[in-house]
Amino acid sequence: MSPSNLAVRGAWLCLLLLSAAAAPAAEALGMNWGTQATHALQPKIVVQMLRDNGIKKVKLFDADHGTLNALAGTDIEVMVAIPNVLLDLMTDYDNARDWVRHNVSRYHFEGGVKIKYVAVGNEPFLASYNGTFDKVTFPALRNIQNALNDAGLSDVKATVPLNADVYNSPTSNPVPSAGRFRADITALMTEMVTFLAKNSAPFTVNIYPYLSLYLSDDFPVDFAFFEGQAAPVVDGAISYTNVFDANFDTLVSALKAVGHGDLPIFIGEVGWPTDGDRRATNALAERFYNGLLKRLAANAGTPLRPNQYMEVYLFGLLDEDVKSVAPGAFERHWGILRFDGQPKFPIDLTGQGQNTMLVPAKGVDYLPRTWCVYNGNAKDTSKLAENVNFACTFADCTALGYGSTCAGMDAIGNASYAFNAYFQVQNQRDEACDFQALAVPTQTDPSTATCNFTIQIAADSSTSAAHRRTQSVLIGAPALFVLALLQLFFVLH
């Protein structure tokens, strides 16, 4: 075996250990719709945008009534969700029955919401959770599906979106055909997979080729994409030229090993971020989606499941400025659209490779065109770093990180960006642009060619005001911006 092939196989194994399609039209694609934002777009605006772009399947991370009411009367298929924090409650059948009644049955009528699936938890078996949800996930899944069946809703299927770290290949044979479920959860996965098969429910997995590049500098870049330019991973008579196929087929092998090799597989999440890391860019996201969507439109399948339609939910629809950045600063930039529903790059959801932009959100109102920037006449700058630190603790400054869109600015630019981010989150309140006389409002746009200084959407276009969400924005920002703060000290002291 060539050294290059060994390197690819080794990198592929790393992805399996660390990580975690479709049809010829947009309506066959699903979209993840997350709402972890200080100023989330109103559901009715988002639903109209989905319809304008021909998207007819959506996956949620909760069962918010405002969102479901906005989806009522449309032809959009919906996967509602039970967050991990509620899994323990769902181990009691009465609680599961009540949840189904309040979040599924009440919408299941002619002209209601087309709820097709219930996601029970989200990646509950992540190795980093150290088994927190191992004992409650399957009982919750079983109770929810049984409650659906008992309510006359057996056509609604319960599933568990899982990270791709629930399966892997052994270090001695790191190829897809050797895929098995993780040793510590093999018995649990076997029991759960058997239950899914019995109820004709799909196995749902989240696959992220981007993580291979983020987690390993040695990973061959081309193997994350679909042009077939990477040195292949050779698995018997099969040669894998992209990590998506290899990852998917490792799962197929793991399912086969427990007696359910034909179980339907949904891709619950797949996508590419656009900021927060040197390889999280619009250009690479466009490249990734272009290759993925072409393959899905052709129903190419994978080597172990060739020429098959794949049920795929892209991740995600919109940027979310309150998501945890523990995995990386890129976490807030997965959207194919900006936070305000504006497209970032050309993407053809039909998979025909046309250079087209998505239809943007309509009816979005913005705050006045006022920004908050560093006060060039400030007399005392001794507390500048402290104030920048404060701003980035309560607002999103991930664009300032290494390799991000705003990383190239000087210290003044960094301070201005931080001040403005906080000012916008606080709905441009006068007192939010002072920072001990270090900041001033301006009507002159301070944005650069690569760095956008945001104007937030107005309250009448969003579902949440900043003062109601401030606490959820606390993310340990100081650790992310040490370099920026050091630069401030050296330049200004």
UniProtKB/TrEMBL annotation:
GO BP annotations, alphabetical order: carbohydrate metabolic process; defense response
UniProt similarity note: Belongs to the glycosyl hydrolase 17 family.
EC number of this enzyme: 3.2.1.39
Reactions listed under catalytic activity: Hydrolysis of (1->3)-beta-D-glucosidic linkages in (1->3)-beta-D-glucans
Domain X8 positions: 370-453
Principal location class: membrane
Organism: Lolium multiflorum (Italian ryegrass)
Gene3D superfamilies in UniProt: 1.20.58.1040, Glycosidases (3.20.20.80)
InterPro entries in the cross-refs: GH (IPR017853), Glyco_hydro_17 (IPR000490), Glyco_hydro_17_plant (IPR044965), X8 (IPR012946)
Membrane-topology descriptor: Lipid-anchor; GPI-anchor
Record's keyword terms, sorted: Cell membrane, Disulfide bond, Glycoprotein, Glycosidase, GPI-anchor, Hydrolase, Lipoprotein, Membrane, Plant defense, Signal, Transmembrane, Transmembrane helix
UniProt-recorded Gene Ontology molecular function terms: glucan endo-1,3-beta-D-glucosidase activity
Keyword Lipoprotein: yes
Pfam families, per the entry: Glyco_hydro_17 (PF00332), X8 (PF07983)
Protein's recorded name: glucan endo-1,3-beta-D-glucosidase
Enzyme class (EC, first level): hydrolase
